[in-house]
Amino acid sequence: MSAFAEFEEERRQIDSLFGQGYTVAGIYEDLDGARVIFIRSEPAGEPVELLLLTADARKHVTAVIFDRSRLVKPIEAHA
Predict the structure, then answer these.
(1) How crowded is residue 61: how many other Cβ atoms within 10 Å of its Cβ?
(2) β-strands 48-52, 23-30: how paired?
(3) pTM for this entry
(4) What is the pLDDT of residue 24?
(5) Can you spell out the DSSP letters for the chain?
(6) Residue 75: what pLDDT?
(7) 49-70, pLDDT tens digit by residue?
(8) pLDDT computed for residue 79 by the predictor
(9) What per-residue string of b and e applies to 46-58 under the rule 16 or more CB within 10 Å gives b?
(10) Beta-carbon count within 10 A of 26 CB
Protein backbone atom coordinates (compact mmCIF):
# COMPACT_ATOMS: atom_id res chain seq x y z
CA MET A 1 0.00 0.00 0.00
CA SER A 2 1.31 3.45 -0.84
CA ALA A 3 2.03 6.02 1.87
CA PHE A 4 -0.85 8.16 0.59
CA ALA A 5 -3.27 5.21 0.69
CA GLU A 6 -2.20 4.45 4.28
CA PHE A 7 -2.81 8.07 5.27
CA GLU A 8 -6.21 8.14 3.54
CA GLU A 9 -7.32 5.00 5.42
CA GLU A 10 -6.21 6.41 8.76
CA ARG A 11 -7.83 9.79 7.99
CA ARG A 12 -11.07 8.03 7.08
CA GLN A 13 -11.05 6.17 10.41
CA ILE A 14 -10.33 9.38 12.34
CA ASP A 15 -13.08 11.34 10.59
CA SER A 16 -15.53 8.47 11.06
CA LEU A 17 -14.95 8.38 14.81
CA PHE A 18 -15.33 12.16 15.12
CA GLY A 19 -18.47 11.93 12.99
CA GLN A 20 -19.93 9.35 15.40
CA GLY A 21 -19.49 11.77 18.31
CA TYR A 22 -16.21 10.50 19.73
CA THR A 23 -13.68 12.84 21.29
CA VAL A 24 -9.98 12.30 21.94
CA ALA A 25 -9.20 11.24 25.50
CA GLY A 26 -5.47 10.80 25.03
CA ILE A 27 -2.62 10.49 22.57
CA TYR A 28 0.38 8.33 23.38
CA GLU A 29 3.43 8.39 21.11
CA ASP A 30 5.97 5.59 20.96
CA LEU A 31 8.26 4.01 18.39
CA ASP A 32 5.31 2.16 16.80
CA GLY A 33 3.33 5.34 16.08
CA ALA A 34 0.66 7.28 17.94
CA ARG A 35 -2.06 5.52 19.92
CA VAL A 36 -5.13 7.74 20.01
CA ILE A 37 -7.84 6.89 22.54
CA PHE A 38 -11.33 8.00 21.55
CA ILE A 39 -14.29 8.08 23.94
CA ARG A 40 -17.96 8.91 23.54
CA SER A 41 -20.09 10.16 26.40
CA GLU A 42 -23.55 9.74 24.86
CA PRO A 43 -24.35 6.96 24.36
CA ALA A 44 -21.57 5.75 26.59
CA GLY A 45 -19.47 2.96 25.22
CA GLU A 46 -16.08 1.38 25.32
CA PRO A 47 -13.08 3.51 24.39
CA VAL A 48 -11.71 2.99 20.89
CA GLU A 49 -7.94 2.88 20.35
CA LEU A 50 -6.57 3.79 16.95
CA LEU A 51 -2.90 3.25 16.07
CA LEU A 52 -1.73 5.92 13.64
CA LEU A 53 1.37 4.97 11.70
CA THR A 54 1.65 7.90 9.30
CA ALA A 55 2.88 11.34 10.27
CA ASP A 56 0.16 12.95 8.17
CA ALA A 57 -2.57 11.14 10.12
CA ARG A 58 -1.03 12.26 13.41
CA LYS A 59 -1.01 15.84 12.10
CA HIS A 60 -4.62 15.47 10.92
CA VAL A 61 -5.96 14.32 14.30
CA THR A 62 -4.11 17.17 16.02
CA ALA A 63 -5.47 19.71 13.52
CA VAL A 64 -9.03 18.47 14.12
CA ILE A 65 -8.58 18.74 17.90
CA PHE A 66 -7.33 22.34 17.62
CA ASP A 67 -10.05 23.25 15.12
CA ARG A 68 -12.77 21.92 17.42
CA SER A 69 -11.29 23.72 20.42
CA ARG A 70 -11.61 27.04 18.57
CA LEU A 71 -15.36 26.45 18.24
CA VAL A 72 -15.79 26.52 22.02
CA LYS A 73 -16.26 30.08 23.18
CA PRO A 74 -14.58 31.00 26.45
CA ILE A 75 -16.80 32.10 29.31
CA GLU A 76 -16.11 35.69 30.27
CA ALA A 77 -15.86 36.45 33.96
CA HIS A 78 -18.14 39.20 35.17
CA ALA A 79 -16.89 41.17 38.15
Answers:
(1) 23
(2) unpaired
(3) 0.83
(4) 94
(5) --HHHHHHHHHHHHHHHHHTT-EEEEEEEETTEEEEEEE-TTTT---EEEEE-SHHHHHHHHHHHHHHHHHSPPPPP--
(6) 64
(7) 999 999 999 999 999 999 988 7
(8) 54
(9) eeeebebebeebb
(10) 11
**57: Cβ contacts below 8 Å, ≥ 6 apart:** 6, 7, 10, 11, 14, 34
pLDDT digits (tens, 9 = 90+) for 24-54: 999 999 998 999 999 998 887 799 999 999 9
Strands lying side by side in the sheet with 33-39: 23-30, 33-39, 48-52
